[in-house]
Amino acid sequence: MTSKISPQQLKRLQTLWGLFCPQSQLDRKDREARLRWASEAIGRQVDSFHELTAEEAATAIDALQEHLPAELVRKRRPSRHLAQAYGTAGRRGRVEKEVRLVDAETIRVLDALIASLGWTRERFDAFLRSPKSPVRSGTIRTLGEANRAIWALKSILRRAKSSTQDSGAETLRRAG
Asked: Residue 155, Cβ neighbours under 10 Å: how many?
């Protein structure tokens, strides 16, 4: 006996369909288009997503994810242990029993912050080697070092935004 689609799969399918429609110039509320697409994806006619088996739902989910940009399709949430490490690694006074190396997701966060500051990678590397560096080694190898760099970059970004807002308010006061 084949298992029916799970509530989680149904929710995932509906969410992905909502993301897929703007990419494909489809109306996300067009039920016929959705069922036509699902029928083509799994290879049989369906009248409702509730008719799908768990295997067919997985096939449809994979097909939708292939058509979406990677940044829209979030894979899996980090484990509880890893999520805690993302938030606490590198804090002052915290002794880590386990050294975690920096992962690709953390590097992407760093790259996004560097880009939002308008810095080049060379400028960021120079910052890491400077006396104001948040990491002693001058390079980022562990999750703790990456977190300290992320917190420093967010602080710099926050200060840059508030100073531009303050200068804009000052300009308005002088003009008035």
From this structure: 11
